[in-house]
Amino acid sequence: MAVIVFMHAFGSSGRAWQPQVLRLRGEHRVLAPDLPGHGATPGPFSLERAVASTRATILGEAEPVHLVAVSGSVSVALLVALAEPARVASLVLSGGAARGGRGDAAQRLMLRLMPEGMIVSILKGMYAGGKAEHLDQAARDLRRAGKATILAGLAELGRLDLRDRLGEISIPALVVNGAKDKANLPHAEEIAAGIHGAEHRVIPNAGHIWNLEQPELFTRTVHEFVRAVLRDRR
Q1: How much is the pTM?
Q2: What does the UniProt keyword field contain (predicted)?
């Protein structure tokens, strides 16, 4: 049995991992905590607080954990792996980045000028490939997180640059990206190239939050990767 910690996108919550939790909890210990300012966890949000809360989660486990992260939480997972190398057994990273992008400042300015309802409508589109219930849950999570938390997350990501530290990560890593999530494909390639021995896969017909678009494939991908890591450690 492995301990798998699922890390949700910024503006989301641990509930976004329900398909994976339900499928894997019979075979593994599965955790899907809410980051600060998200779901049931009080804010405010910052990368420092997100890393601290995740470190507290994994340090409470008896064995190293497998971190599975999507979107903005990929950066959190990388920071946790760098801070606690002995406590992280492997990484599965989807649709994230190790650094801010050129258009981040313009994006934040645009969102800052928008009313919160419009921001929710735009961002919940990332979940449109899943079931209607997932879209409704995404909208509730985004409203609960609120505009301030969403903007804080984007601002922190915009200032981050971990490219020079990726080589410090020596654990097994699988970097995945939906083929439709074209904006993050260069970031996925960059992360995979920076982590020694990392595997990179592009998932056909998948978007940004593809664990809800293609839940069975995402779950199987995580399950098979974790099993391979466990097998190699024996």
Answers
A1: 0.94
A2: Hydrolase
How many separate helices (H) and strands (E) can be counted in the chain? 9, 6
Residues 6+ apart with CB under 8 A from 34: 8, 13, 14, 40, 41
Please state whether the peptide bond connecting residue 33 to the residue before it is cis, i.e. omega within 30 degrees of 0.
no
Q: What is the CATH number assigned to the segment(s) 3-233?
A: 3.40.50.1820
* Nearest by Cα to 25 from 53, 5, 46, 50: 5
Ramachandran quadrant class, 95 (left: phi over 0; alpha: psi -120 to 50; beta: rest):
left
pLDDT by 10-residue block (mean), the chain, 234 residues: 96 96 96 97 96 97 97 97 97 94 67 81 80 89 94 91 97 97 95 97 95 96 96 79
Using CB atoms within 10 Å of the CB of residue 225, give its burial: 0 to 12 exposed, 13 to 18 middle, 19+ buried.
buried
Tell me the backbone φ, ψ of residue 161, rounded to 5 degrees: -150, 105
The full set of domain ranges for the chain reads: 3-233
Q: Cβ distance 225 to 2 under 8 Å?
A: no
Would you say 150 and 156 are in contact if contact means Cβ atoms under 8 Å apart? no
What are φ and ψ of residue 93, in 5° steps? -120, 125
